[in-house]
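Appendix B. One record, verbatim.
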Amino acid sequence: MDRKTFLSYLGTGAAALATASAGLGVLNGKASAMSATADHLFGFNTNRVSGYFEPIAPSKEDQLLLPKNFKYDVVAAFDDVINEAGEKFGSGCDYNAFFPIKGSNVRGLLVNNHEYSTIFSIGPVKDGKMTADQLHKNLYYQGMSVIEVYRDEKGTWKMDKTSTHARRINGYTKFELTGPAKGSTAVGGATSAVGTFANCSGGVTLWNTVLSCEENFAETASASKLPETHYGWVIEVDPFDKSYLKKHTALGRFNHENTAMGLAPDGRVVVYMGDDKKDACVYKFVSKGKFDKLKGRANSALLEDGTLYVANLKSGKWMPVTLAEVTKAAKDKPEALKKFKTQGDVVTFCQEAALLVGGTPTDRPEDIEISPFDNTIFICHTNNDNHGNIHGHITRIFEANNDLAALEFDFEIFAAGGRQSGFSSPDNLAFDSNGHLWVVTDISSSSQNKGVHKSFMNNGLFVIPTSGPDKAAALQFASAPVESELTGPFFTPDEQTLFLSVQHPGENTADLSQPTSLWPHRAGDKKARCAVVAISGFKLGN
């Protein structure tokens, strides 16, 4: 009997043992607020979307592989023209967010992040120094794309190049700075910043705008001789308004992966964030003011004034990353006292400040999502070979009294990567309406199909069911092309379409005449292209 079949036959009495053996968090007990006989991790039953699929096996193929009865359409790939102005889709596509037009599930704006350039977008870099043309392309192809997408009468998803909303946001776009660092000495007195790049993941706000995260920004800023402190922020964009462009400094400056926004019981806005570095911290921002739905986009001002916290996992407390706390912690450290004079300094040099006040270094905290069912917080700790955490894990945080603004919390390891669970290096997360967790993985291209990563083969997309016979099993839904990772899973509101990015196929290519991948295998094409795909085939439940 294979593992999947075995799990389907498990009785409730064996569930705890089985999940422990699988490397997945025990789903019963006080911490999970769940009884031993409950059928669902979040304590409810739903069947809005069946979610059924026949899991696929790991693969080394240079293809995007899906289960039977599912298909994908390439909606936009690197260098595709996106509008009548001739602007082109960027490189390193990552996060996706779909915004329906007039409530439609088959037409809307798709916002996509562009994280970095590759040999396919700027060519080989000689002696580590880019030419003027490469510097220009590097700034142009990073950032974001806003495109209009639709599903035609044959069920194929396409890009509408006549859209008046379609545009690029990149290293040349001007942003307004907000919050404590605006005009501060830490940013050279600037009240605006030119450009965004290294845009990794993001999030959608309660007022229907997009937050995009600048992650590994230092290399591009240095190469282009740009002021480094102008980058590493969370930016806000309105897909329907080209003039609305902000960088929110109150959320701190670090290697941002994504944002997850929720509401505290008293109406304050809470934003969770991860810092994608080895030995980096988990943060949350709690606004001073309260959300007012009637104010619409004006609620954005809530992101300009509030308190930034960092998690101390040993004590289970959120530590304020404020000038007062940093000053207190650095009382015997003259250099630190000299560095941190204002709250603008604190948020600009946030990584150092967070450690001073007691933040716990963790294993690359990447995507963070708030469960829409019980307000627990799920964090992808991707890996950290410095500590022997080769395959990473997913952490689940329980805020005190189920209050997102609470200052105390508990946590558990919900899922551990490794051979026993079938996946390695979790990166991005998404929930479906059944509460099942969709997880994409980020095994580095240099490690794929080698050593302890050999059994996982290419990166993939996995589903961890939270109810039913396969509860707690990591089931593989997709396998990525060679030397790529799958990123930015995002469902349409009716969950009939899943948008997914295929990032950096053929990443290890050193010679353009010998690409290691040619995905998406366009006729006559001699290069690999990152792309956003629309996956169809999901069936409504009964």
